[in-house]
Amino acid sequence: MKCIEKMDFCSQVFVQMKRQQRRKAQRVAIMKSTERQQRITMGEEGEGEGVSEGGTEWKMVPVKKSKKGKRKSKDSSKLKITKSSGALLPSPLPPELRGLDTEWWYTFLHKHAESGNTAPSDEGEAFRYFFRTSRQTFDYICSIVREDLISRPPSGLINIEGRLLSVEKQVAIAMRRLASGDSQVSVGAAFGVGQSTVSQVTWRFIESMEERARHHLVWPVLERMEEIKAKFESDYGLPNCCGAIDATHIIMTLPAVESSEDWCDLAKNYSMFLQVIVDDEMRFIDICTGWPGSMTFSRLLKCSSFFKLCEAGKRLYGPAIVSSENGEIKEFIVGDICYPLFPWLMTPYEGGSLSAPMANFNAKQKAATMLGVRALSRLKGSWRILNKVMWRPDKNKLPSIILVCCLLHNIIIDSKDELLPDVQLPDHHDIGYSKENCKHVDSNGKIMRDIITAHIQS
């Protein structure tokens, strides 16, 4: 019976694939006709707006500069992005471009069914299972990188039938590699391409996203920050709280040479650190990566530009509020005991005999801090390449991979996509690591914590 059901499913996928081929041919004919008419009736469109780069930091990757101007594609001029509540979200594609290439998807499903692997029976859920996003968000991501992926493509980007890979298929290959963490050989076999093609496609996608999707990871503007602070106060009872901080290790294997010892952490793994600050929706609003996992959490914080900005009064410098006892509560974030206590970074009270107000503060502070833990568990669960042991990665390129996974994490939130329930890691994002206790206590930070504790108790 199972065999018959499997054959029926394969047959259905094959029929769908044939239908898609016929529809694609019709759309191509319509698109060519439309383009001919547009060349007669329209002039050249203007260039798109630039993007901001705030909230992102990595230590090892130099800024990339384009040597040649990129040619504008015909298709990219038709793709539009709409703005809603400060975030860029996908708008529906024009009819002639909608589902421009879906043949790859049914071919991929057909291969997956033939291999005997399981997947959700619903097509929409199956798409999110393999690529983490809805089809609409996937199309939006394609619109971000389309111009880069179709301009001057390497001659090697062809499939086994000798045809150039479509933008949709290139994005699918790259996102499947990041989502699954499977080897390039395995991912290539699922799409009918070779290992070298997977490598080229994935890196071209990462470079394009790194440059063109940076607006999805920025420090919030004033209006958005007020919304974040209001949410932290209503959900956790913490006034003027702007976010939560946490960090995780990205584990890798390295050659057995002396220089590798710099990357050996306390758990005896070679790793690279990722520090994140998240808002009330578990969106990353600041990241720092590229530093060795052998560092402590507090040392990583002090090496980040976020720390330098806070100490210089250029971040978390928004309006203070007056406490119930006429004290001043400035903007702050929350973190675990592995972080030092500062006026702008609230950590829990320690000790065995805490007063009731102290215990109350600790409970609220811990609940808010868990947002960072859950965000990193979702990140490493969605993009499993960060949760698996990477085999001798290029340490100059690894920060870019981490950044793009963080951008994809934010795009899913901005697009209000629903992740499948089993995507987030069931356990902590840093299994095998224990957080060291940071003993540093800033005197002004101690005063600020006491003011907040008294305020939430009243």
Describe this structure in words.
The longest helix has 40 residues, at 2-41. The protein has helices at 2-41, 103-114, 123-131, 135-150, 167-180, 184-191, 195-212, 222-236, 297-303, 305-311, 356-382, 398-414, 443-457, and strands at 56-58, 81-84, 87-90, 241-253, 270-278, 284-292, 321-322, 328-329, 332-334, 345-346, 390-391. Helix 5 runs antiparallel to helix 6, helix 5 (167-180) packs across helix 7 (195-212) and helix 11 crosses helix 13 (443-457). Strand 2 (81-84) and strand 3 (87-90) form a beta hairpin. It is elongated, with a radius of gyration of 24 Å. The strands form three sheets. Strands 1, 4, 5, 6, 9, 10 and 11 form a seven-stranded mixed beta sheet that branches. Mean pLDDT is 82; it is low at 1-11, 28-53 and 60-99. It has 458 residues and is α/β, with parallel strands linked by helices.
Which secondary structure elements does this structure contain, and how are they paired or packed?
Elements: H1 2-41, E1 56-58, E2 81-84, E3 87-90, H2 103-114, H3 123-131, H4 135-150, H5 167-180, H6 184-191, H7 195-212, H8 222-236, E4 241-253, E5 270-278, E6 284-292, H9 297-303, H10 305-311, E7 321-322, E8 328-329, E9 332-334, E10 345-346, H11 356-382, E11 390-391, H12 398-414, H13 443-457
Parallel strand pairs: 1-6, 4-9, 4-11, 9-10
Antiparallel strand pairs: 2-3, 4-5, 5-6, 7-8
Helix pairs in contact: 1-2, 4-5, 4-7, 5-6, 5-7, 6-7, 7-12, 11-13
